[in-house]
Structures are given as C-alpha cells and as structure tokens.
Amino acid sequence: MSFESFAESLSFFLWSTFIISVILGVIVNKTNFCTMGAVSDMVNMGDYSRFRAWLLAIAVAMIGVSIFEYLELVNVNETFPGYRGSQLIYVENILGGILFGIGMTFASGCGNKTLIRIGGGNIKSILVFIVIALIAYYMTNPFPDSDKTLYSVLFYDWVNPLAITLDGNQDIGALISSDNTKTMRLIAGLLVAAGMLFYIFKAADFRSSKDNILAGVVIGLIILTAWYTSSNIGITADDTHYSLSDYYAEWDMLAEDDEGRPATGRALNSQSFTFINPIGQTYGYIKDGLDSALLTFGLISVFGVILGSLLWSLISRSFRIEWFFDLKDFLNHFFGAILMGFGGVLALGCTVGQGITGMSTLALGSILTFISIIFGSALTMKIQYYKMVYEDEASFGKAFITALVDMKLLPASLRKLDAV
User: Which residues contact 288 (CB under 8 A, 6 or more apart)?
Assistant: First the structure.
C-alpha cells in the first residue's frame, strides 16, 4: 500500500485504524469479551470459557504473525512499543503486570473494557478513563515547567539498573536460535499456538460457545490486521518506497515543508492495539488544543472502540447509564484506575497490549506481563472473597496468606482461614 504523498498515506493509516477499532468495539461489546471477567470466572466459578476466548485471540494473532513474518508481510521487530527490544525490563513487566491486574479488579475492567463500558453508558468508567489518562500521560511526559516525569521520580533510579541487556531480540524464536531466527520464529509461534488451541478446544462447553469462539477468532484477526496495515502503508518518493517512520526520519530531505508533519515518529512504526498509553495520549491531545499533529494509531483506536461499543449498545438496546453505588464503589474505581495507569505504562501494555498484541510476537516481556496480570487479578479476587465471607474475622494478612495457599504458592500448613 504505497501512496504518492505522506498526507495520503497517513490519512489512509488513521482511517483504516478507525474502522478496525470500531469493529473491535462492536465485537468486544457483543460477545462480552472481558479479560478481568475471564479471571473472575476462573477464580470464583471455575469457569474457563472466557479465559479460553482470551487464549484463542492470542493463538489466532500468533499464528498470523508467525506466518506473515516468515513471508515478510509484517514487521514486528521495530514496533511501537518495542515488544522485542534487546533490553528485558523484567522487573517493570512483573511489577507493572501485578499492579495492572490488581487495578483492573478494583476498577471493574481493564483499559479496553473501560472504553467498552463508556460506550455502553457507564459513567464510572469515565472517572477511570480520566485517572488513567493523567497518570499514563505524566508517566511519559514531564510535568509543567519541569523535566521530571512520574516514571523518573518514582521508578527510574531503582528499576532501570535491573534491566537485562540481551545480545539480540527477546522473543522466543531469537532466544532459541540466533543463526536461523526467521525459521525458528515460525516454528516456535506455530508450536505454541498449536498447544494453546489443543487446550482451548478440548473443552466441550467452549466448543459450543459461539460468542466466545467469535470473540477469540475475530479479535485475534483484528490484532493481525493492525499489524499488517501498520507494517505495509508507505510512500513512494524519488522512486523509492518509504515506510511512514522511515519517511519521517528523512523528512527534511523528502518533504518541502513541515505541513502535516506528526509530532513524533515512533508512533508511526508498525503496531497493533494497546490502550493505556493511548488513553494517556488523549489527555495530551485535549491539553494541546486538539492538534492534528498528535493524532496517532493509539489515539484513533481509543475513539474507535468507544464508538463501536456505543453503536452495539444502541443496536442491542443495552445502553444504560450507570453510576457509583456508594463512596466505597467510587474509591475502588479511583484506586484501581491509579494502579492501572502506573502498571500499564510500566509493563508497556495492558491485557490487550501485552496480553494479546505483545504475546503474538512471543516476546519474553509480554509473557511475563501476561502471567503477572493474571496473578495480580486472581490474588486480589481471592483476598476480596475471603474478606467478604469472614468479614471482621479476616484481616488483610490472613486473607492474603490464605489466598496464596489456595493458589498453591504457600504450603497448606500456613492456611489462616478455612477454605470457602
């Protein structure tokens, strides 16, 4: 997909992103695809159907990325964010994932679900959105009249030195073989996805669940479509094909003036869906007067998902205005949003950004984040459940230890509360 001008190329890029995002919003709302709900079903009811739908989306995207990358139809090495970067920020992946998992449990859903709930009329999710936007923005952008960010003040000095610098990329294929990486990435991706598909479809109840299958397949394909589109849109200038990011890097040599030049070049790299950083971008977009130079894949995807969810809510007549039940409900959502803002930026993504998009690249950091999000959410639900059942008898410490025993992370002899 090559265009004669940067403006045409960027316009196609953003409009195609918007259309894909609207479809994503419709599908997620229609099928009730919810990663926090998937963890809740597992922990509270032993129902793995929605978790399998999540895994199906990962498997479909992974198969597509593995094949397309082998055929050189997508670029998932130089991406935004850099999932396969040579620096493994494992502490940020784990800490950020746990914080995000805890946060989405308190806030009744992840970043994507927040957008879906806004489209469905949930006023509570607007508060969550605003809090995430402020924290995510100032985690990566300096405070007014300062060169400090939330990340530099709270995390940089002790987290950054712990990162591990690898000789090459951090994805499984590259780690297994540096000599034949292209083939190994294909083999690793197909084998991991095949194992996931076996686990997913061995459950008879899942095989009969049309909505869960629809959600997994379509969302996986949407992730792949975004990878393909963002990898292949470019400009032909001086008989040479340039990607959007390459053209931006050579702007002074290729463009006659700065008209239509985006604010940053990294956001033009190949990419797929993630939501915490883009929610932060919406604050910057509004703060800077709706400057068109700030429009990015992520920002457009936020608007598209909300609109898609709204459309389905109106079509299905499920649009409902929802407000906080009480002060505790307000504080839970506020607290959860804070943790999601910090965690999503630290971990370089959310349940979609790392849990599906990043996982489709088989990046080690994405795998760590995926596991950490599930752990943080499941542990929080266990603690909440014991606190609810035992009320005053269950201190946080007792509930915490008992939850770890239930998750088989501590010996049964340390159990403080009877299992429920």
Answer: 294
Range 202-209, long-range pairs (CB < 8 A, 24+ positions): 203/48, 203/49, 203/52, 205/49, 206/48, 206/49, 206/52, 206/53, 209/49, 209/53
User: What are the residues whose beta carbons fall under 8 Å from the beta carbon of 121, sequence distance 6 or more?
Assistant: 313, 319, 320, 321, 322
16 within some domain? yes
| Matching residue, tokens 């997508």 | 74
Number of domains the chain is built from: 1
Q: What is the reported pTM?
A: 0.94
Q: Which of the 8 DSSP states describes residue 92? A: H
The verdict on residue 419 lying in a domain is: no
Per residue in 257-272, pLDDT (tens digit) is 888 889 888 889 999 9
Counting as low any pLDDT under 50, the low residues of the chain are none
Q: Looking at the domain assignment, is residue 322 inside a domain?
A: yes
Q: Containing domain of residue 316, as a range? A: 2-414
Does 226 reside within a domain? yes
Integer Cα distance of 63 and 76 in angstroms = 13
CA distance 290 to 283: 10
DSSP letter, residue 347: T
Q: Find the angle CA(386)-CA(388)-CA(391) to the nearest 5 degrees.
A: 95
Tokens (6 digits) for 266 = 């990294």
Count of other CB atoms within 10 angstroms of residue 351: 31
